[in-house]
Amino acid sequence: MTPDPAGFTADGIDSQAWEEAVAAALNALAAEFSLAEERRGNTAERYASSAGGRSAEPASVSQRSTWLDTFDWRLHKAGLTLEYLPGRGGSELRLASRARAGAARGSASSPAGQDGVPEQAAVQPVTGWQASRPHLLADLAGGPVGTRLAALIEPRALVPVADTAVATTVYRLLNADSKTVARLVVSRPRLVSGRQATPLPPRLAIAEVRGYQVQERRAVRLLAAVPGLSPAVEPLLADALRALGRRAGDYSNKVDAAITGAMPAAAAAAAILLRLLDTIEVNVPGVLADIDTEFLHDLRVSVRRTRSALKLFGDVLGLTRKELAFFAAEFKWVGDVTTPTRDLDVHLLDFEETARGLAAAKPDDLEPFRAFLEQRRRKEFRALARGLRGARFTALTADWRRRLAAVQASSAGPARASATRSGQSGRASVGRAGLLAAERTRVTFAKVARQGAAITADSPAESLHDLRKRCKELRYALEFFAPLHDGAASAKVVGDLKRLQDCLGEFQDTEIQIAEIRALAAAMHAAGEAPAVTLLAMGEITASLAARQRAARADFERRFAAFAGIDGQRRVSALLRGGASR
Description:
Shape: globular
Oligomer: single chain
Number of domains: 2
Radius of gyration: 29 Å
CATH class of the largest domain: Mainly Alpha
Order of helices and strands: EHEHEHEEHEHEEEEHEHHHHHHHHHHHH
Structural class: alpha+beta
Mean pLDDT: 88
Largest sheet: 11 strands, antiparallel
Number of strands: 11
Low-confidence stretches: 1-5, 42-58, 102-119, 415-423
């Protein structure tokens, strides 16, 4: 059987303490077994491979690895790790369960598949793979790892998060008859960054030899009793990230500002807006590198949230009306700059599914349309990049951060109501964040309920579009103040609201897509790039979109009643009462 690379890890804060723990482990095992360093190249290779390395060198072998995940840690959230293992005889990607890799065990007696790979893992050979750059799912083209990850990561790219090198030494544990009854695998990992290598805590595991399970369990117990060793409950990646000053899951596009109901309203508002600014700024490099479309999506969502926050509670920041209007206009400009590229991204992301859904036309008929979309996107992306690299955007984010930091500093201390200064924007000041959340969310919900109730079968499309905007503002308000609300009650309200938003979004998005496709068809025709079959296929797409729009309109009344009916109003009132008292 092959070793589990988890086993035990050395405690302590430096390499000296770690090596002392390894020496103590060897001494503890030597008290009951004879130890012989493994000298068979194939055997050493097999154990090093399972512990994160592959080589035919005898005794001690070393292997480089690059650990991969998406920018928003989708593999980590799914309990998986992904390694790229380069090798002269062939490179491979190895997908494994994080729970197994971090299992608190010291033995390797769990079942394994072919080539010593755990059954929970998937291995895919790759050629020409450059681990230092991002890779979209298409780069994994149908292999076992790509198949496992398809539904999980699309449309995100895999990006490198850490590079490690692991030197592995295997010792045979011999009984009194000089028979090998178990093996000790000692792995000494290092974090590799450029030309620097930082030692990480060594890991030790016992590998079972068939027929000697009693001796294997005894060896595990001996390791468990060694001072300075503890069960390895996390994969090697966690140690590497700690050495980098990071942690798995350290990025999220959620609004998770640390606010409390008792803190000053201005401080809470500034904390929420600073969290949104962090998300905007951290996504800019990924947008400019065009790594995947989700960087731009997350940036735009945070821009929209910022604009809604300014409208919802910008008045408590202590800024003048002129200052608030300036920042609102500047973030609207950011939204306008990023819209064309995002709209084209949506068309391209949905292209394959749209083409497969054609009935009268063939998917190939749409290829000129795809080429036109890609050409248009390249042009719009250049304009987007100029905007995000320009002085206007740089000045906006820097100035906004300074102003918000100043608000936080000036509002430190107990919450208190203060009179609105002359020239400042907004309604009457609210002292505590809990009161701010209850007041502003209640007003926003009332707008949604009033506007939605006024919509009839004869109402124009613009009335549903306006309601969608109010629903977004309400959704953002609930997200901003989520730490102040009961989780279960909030989930019910947000769930009903999301279903209403989905309906309104389907109605508006299909209308926008119909208009965009018609405009693109006209542009293609004017440029002489639209064969008749392509125009006919595009016409079929617009007909399908129109049918979806009609279905969404028909479903609106039911979804609105579920959210804003009598029961829905009671749920929202109870939620806000609880938040105000926290």
